[in-house]
Amino acid sequence: MPRYSVRVPRRQTREPLPDLWLLSDVRNDARLEQALRALPRGSGFVFRHYHLAPEARRRRFDDLAKIARECGHAVILSGTPGEAERWGAGGLYGPPGGIGPGPALRIATAHGRAEIEAANAIGADAVMLSPVFATRSHPDAQALGLERFHVLATLAQMPVIALGGMTPVRAQELGWPRWAAIDGLS
User: Fold this and answer.
1) DSSP string spanning 125-166?
2) DSSP secondary structure code for residue 46 in this structure
3) Which pLDDT score, from 0 to 100, does residue 4 have?
4) pTM of the model
5) Which alpha helices (H) appear in the chain, and where do they start and end?
6) Selection from 115, 117, 107, 105 nearest residue 160 by Cα
7) Which residues are 127's β-sheet partners?
């Protein structure tokens, strides 16, 4: 199997960027407290929880963010820049057009070349590239696979976080230091 070299990003992030990221979802909600406590100190947590009504979503964020911070994890919100500021999140997660400029850590989502180029254009701090492998989150989406992931990752001017069907074994197979999961970590 070919080994891939990890490219040094052309720009440094504003804060140290964790290598391991847990994303919240309706599927892993019941296990999130346990999963956050099981992550290595200094990991990252992206709160999504799109399935909740606004008030319930805010309460759930506050509860999980408290645990994440106690464990030394970065807490990132999938939401608007204003929400991230009001909620006390350490950053934003979303499509390049939705994370805007600002002092908080900004992680852009990307599924192909155009979104990586958009993330480069806005100066995102990191890009989460997916789906690397088949995933339950997007069962009909075509997985990037090893080769295409690595080709696309070379286009990013910032660190790349692999997402989609990721587990510790898959991260090793991919030969990539930064990765994220929903089911694979919870």
Assistant:
1) SEEEE--SS--SSSTTSPP-HHHHHHHHHTT-SS-EEEESS-
2) E
3) 41
4) 0.90
5) 32-38, 54-70, 81-87, 96-99, 113-122, 145-153, 168-174
6) 107
7) 108, 160
Q: Which residues does 150 contact at the CB level (< 8 Å), separation at least 6?
A: 4
CA separation for the pair 124, 133 (Å, rounded) = 24
CB-based contacts of 48-52 (< 8 A; 24+ apart in sequence):
48/23, 48/24, 48/78, 48/93, 49/24, 49/25, 50/26, 50/78, 51/26
How far is the CA of 46 from the CAs of 6, 38, 98, in angstroms?
Answer: 23, 15, 15
For residue 23, list its beta bridge partners. Answer: 46
Do 115 and 96 form a contact (C-beta atoms < 8 A)? yes
The residues, ordered by sequence, that sit 6+ positions from 143 with a Cβ below 8 Å of its Cβ are 131, 132, 133, 134, 135, 164, 165
Instruction: Compute φ and ψ for 133, nearest 5 degrees.
Output: -120, 170
Judge whether 117 and 155 are in contact, CB under 8 Å: yes
pLDDT by residue (tens digit) across 87-115? Answer: 999 999 999 999 977 778 999 999 999 99
Domains (ranges, CATH) in the chain? 20-185 (3.20.20.70)
Would the pLDDT of 142 be above 80?
Answer: yes
SS3 94: strand
